[in-house]
UniProtKB/TrEMBL annotation:
Pfam families: LacI, Peripla_BP_3. It comes from Microbacterium immunditiarum. Keywords: DNA-binding, Transcription, Transcription regulation. Signal peptide: none annotated. Residues 2-56 form the HTH lacI-type domain. PROSITE patterns: HTH_LACI_2. CDD domains: HTH_LacI, PBP1_LacI_sugar_binding-like. One of its GO terms (molecular function) is transcription cis-regulatory region binding. Gene3D superfamilies: 3.40.50.2300, lambda repressor-like DNA-binding domains (1.10.260.40). This is LacI family transcriptional regulator. The keyword Transcription applies.
Length: 332
């Protein structure tokens, strides 16, 4: 059985330093913390959370609440979150609430009833949920938001720079010669991507046509429906920028139904770089978000709050996105 002494030996640190880190009972510098995390990972050390909870008064549980746990983006984010949490002996309790405001509020209340040490939350389209989180943060519950926020609150935020990612997608299509570019969004989600599209169209010097901006469900079916509307136009677009990869796959399917070839007849760009984008036919050009790193960074922010390693004002961190060019885009 691997013990803290084994971790200390592997990390080249004292048992006292390792104990402070594992039990979250004092400051451990970032260099030493990284050595301990690496040793824990290499040795497979599992802290005794039951014993720790008696001394720290913590449950060893952190919550993650999202509107769509089945989304490929969310699945990869959770993987990074869990990997980081387990290094410090924490268990992640996940919950998916759809876009149901009442269900979300009930879930948050239930999780807090289990004495969570902290909460990580993906964006919700609900002022009531925002107010609940603001109240929870005021009461001392560490809260980290992942993704764009509706409005400021006293909580840490980690997100991708999706606006810059959207501009890079539009620049790519413009450089390929496309001038009639449509956007398929997801109602009130992905607002920064929509704004990137609108700003890019304006900077190119093209008129903004409302018919080229479609909103629907953030899934494949939403993309199929929006794609069908766009491709039925008398003057259809030559390219489509979709708010996520699932929507983009739906647009690909809509093109297939009309016997259009991608990218010869229509170029399509997605967003996220989920696994489905890598294996679609054709492989999807997309904007990659650092999904696992978002999860790891969110967990790190939260656990630094929980353990007292950080007691500063709320911070915001934007991680870069990257355009990944595959086979779904081509010159016009």
């Amino acid at each position: 059985m691997v013990t803290m002494y084994d971790v200390a030996a592997r990390a080249g640190l004292s048992i006292g330093t390792v104990s402070r880190f594992v039990n979250a009972r004092g400051y451990v510098g970032p260099v030493s913390s990284e050595k301990i995390r690496r040793a824990i990972d290499e040795l497979g050390f599992v802290p005794n959370t039951a014993a720790r909870s008696l001394t720290t008064k913590r449950s060893g549980l952190i919550g993650f609440v999202t509107s769509d746990l089945a989304n490929p983006f969310t699945a990869e984010l959770v993987q990074g979150l869990q990997e980081e949490a387990i290094l410090e002996g924490y268990c992640v309790v996940t919950a998916s609430t759809g876009r149901d405001e009442q269900r979300t509020l009930q879930t948050l209340a239930a999780l807090r009833g289990h004495q969570l040490d902290g909460l990580i939350m993906s964006p919700q389209e609900s002022p009531a949920v925002d107010e609940y989180l603001r109240h929870a943060a005021h009461e001392g519950l560490p809260v980290v938001r992942v993704g764009a926020a509706r409005e400021p609150m006293e909580a840490d935020l980690v997100a991708s720079d999706t606006y810059s990612g959207g501009r890079s997608a539009m620049s790519h299509l413009h450089d390929l010669g496309h001038r009639r570019i449509a956007y398929v969004g997801a109602h009130r989600q992905a607002e920064s991507r929509r704004q990137a599209y609108l700003d890019a169209v304006e900077s190119i010097g093209l008129p903004v046509e409302s018919a080229l901006v479609c909103e629907g469900e953030p899934n494949r079916e939403g993309g199929v429906l929006a794609g069908a509307r766009l491709l039925e136009m008398a003057d259809p677009p030559t390219a489509v920028f979709a708010a996520n990869d699932l929507i983009a796959l739906g647009v690909l399917h809509a093109a297939y139904r009309r016997q259009l070839r991608v990218p010869d007849d229509l170029s399509v760009v997605g967003f996220d770089d989920s696994e489905v984008a890598r294996h679609s036919v054709p492989p999807l050009t997309t904007v990659a978000q650092p999904k696992q790193e978002l999860g790891r960074y969110a967990a790190r922010l939260l656990l630094d709050r929980v353990t007292g390693r950080r007691d500063s004002e709320a911070v915001e961190r934007l991680l870069s996105c990257e355009l990944v060019v595959r086979d779904s885009t081509a010159p016009i």
